[in-house]
Specification:
Blueprint lengths: L2 H21 L12 H11 L22 H13 L3 H27 L2 H12 L2 H6 L6 H20 L6 H16 L3 H22 L5 H27 L2 H5 L5 H17 L27 E6 L6 E5 L3 H20 L3 H12 L20 H15 L6 H27 L5 H7 L7
Antiparallel strand pairs: 1-2
Helix pairs in contact: 1-4, 1-5, 2-3, 3-4, 4-5, 4-7, 4-15, 5-15, 7-8, 7-9, 8-9, 8-10, 9-10, 9-14, 13-14, 13-15, 14-15, 15-16
């Protein structure tokens, strides 16, 4: 069997299992949790239900500070399954499932191996934060899906460039859709621009060009601008057509609305008028890889203790990321391995800028980083098989990484899915005070 077909079958099987886990008991809890009170309510309104039935106080959306695409996608589930928990969360589950398939595809493109595609897909499928975001009606899983899709297309373009670069154009559209979910998608787009330009420069350097960057800009500057600036903007703007149609396509009003959105985000403060933090689960970006403050989306104590949805990252991938990220940097710099850069740049571009931000931040902003942490871990494990180690030992180490990822996922399953467990069982999973 050809490797591509073998990879497709393996990735498909992993995706089916991942999808089943994301759909299992999706209606529980049978109430809106955390930011579902904004996004599920607004999506209900988008779907044409009366605002009173959506839990809104007025005939207007509450989450107007974010672009419409994510809420439009949640509304698709409500259209199909009704204004109830399964309807709110269905498309999030589908987006999370699609992200696993895309992560496996990206792994295959990078490693050209069905086995390593499977490793990457399993690590992504058992990553805790991505799993939780796949089961709640919030925006971040849609952002993640479009980001990973963009990089799949970008890497495919690098491997198989065509005359008019349709794959790169499609990548630009995917990044534009990511921005149409949350503006933070622009960070992924910037990473894509850096990588695309670096790859064009490298291609000319290997051809012996003395000034590869200058030649790359001369030959590909305009196509890059069209693909990764104009196309994303057009894709972003098209998602606003329903909003514009309701306002007679008043572009001035649209521009003013964007100014209001920007003003809201820039004006957010971490301290309220009472002098207290505005939210108990805020965390600084530097602490995210440490997992010092996950976000509790749902909690139910007595009389049926305990049930919780804890938006936490996988300890294996997040804590392991403290080693994997420097390893990717060394591999990219030392060995000039473009694959390491293809994983490192999206991680850093979507993480480092948050270190400079003073507005309220939460761990789930790392959701679009998690697939790249999973694939970065697979990359590092794969390298173990390429050095002068006992091959059986290296393969055992890789298998151990996968087993530990699955075991941690199973262990934390109850607090990722609001399953009712005993107080003692819940406490056994709260490893640090900051997790409570």
């Amino acid at each position: 069997m050809r490797p591509a077909w073998k990879a497709a079958l393996i990735i498909g099987a992993i995706t089916l299992v991942a999808g089943g886990l994301r759909l299992y008991r999706l209606s529980q809890p049978d109430e809106k949790v955390f930011d579902e009170v904004y996004y599920a309510s607004d999506a209900c309104w988008y779907a044409g239900h009366p605002f009173q039935a959506c839990g809104l106080k007025d005939d207007a959306e509450r989450s107007w500070v974010h672009p419409p695409l994510g809420k439009m996608l949640i509304a698709v589930g409500i259209d199909g399954f009704g204004n109830r928990p399964f309807g709110w969360r269905f498309t999030a589950a589908m987006a999370g499932t699609a992200t696993i398939a895309l992560a496996g595809m990206l792994a295959f493109l990078l490693f050209a191996s069905a086995g390593w595609a499977a490793v990457g897909a399993v690590l992504a499928a058992t990553e805790h934060l991505l799993f939780v975001q796949s089961r709640v009606a919030m925006l971040d899983v849609f952002l993640t899906m479009f980001v990973v899709l963009g990089f799949v297309l970008l890497v495919a373009d690098r491997l198989h460039p065509m005359r008019y670069r349709p794959l790169r154009v499609a990548a630009g559209a995917a990044f534009g859709l990511a921005i149409a979910v949350k503006w933070s998608g622009v960070l992924a787009l910037l990473a894509a621009i850096v990588l695309a330009l670096a790859w064009e420069r490298t291609r000319r350097k290997t051809e012996g060009e003395e000034r590869p960057l200058r030649r790359a800009l001369r030959e590909q500057g305009l196509p890059l601008y069209l693909s990764l600036v104009i196309v994303p903007f057009v894709a972003y703007a098209l998602t606003w057509i329903p909003w514009l149609a309701e306002r007679s396509f008043d572009v001035v009003d649209w521009a003013g609305h964007h100014g209001d959105m920007a003003g809201y985000h820039l004006g957010l403060d971490t301290i309220g008028e009472d002098g207290e933090p505005i939210h108990p689960y805020m965390s600084r970006a530097w602490s995210w890889l440490l997992l010092s403050r996950p976000v509790s989306y749902f909690w139910q104590g007595e009389p049926n203790c305990c049930a919780e949805i804890l938006g936490m990252g996988s300890p294996l991938l997040f804590w392991g990321g403290l080693l994997v990220i420097p390893y990717l940097a060394l591999a990219w710099r030392g060995r000039r391995d473009w694959r390491a850069g293809a994983l490192l740049v999206p991680i850093l571009a979507q993480f480092l800028p948050w270190l400079l931000v003073s507005r309220p931040l939460f761990l789930f902003y790392m959701a679009p980083v998690t697939p790249f942490l999973a694939l970065g871990t697979a990359y590092a494990a794969r390298d173990l098989l390429g050095v002068r180690l006992d091959q059986r030992l290296a393969m055992a180490g890789t298998a151990a990484v996968v087993v530990v990822s699955i075991a941690l996922f199973a262990f934390f399953w109850p607090v990722l899915t609001a399953s009712t467990i005993s107080t003692e069982a819940w406490q056994n999973r709260m490893w640090f005070d900051g997790w409570i």
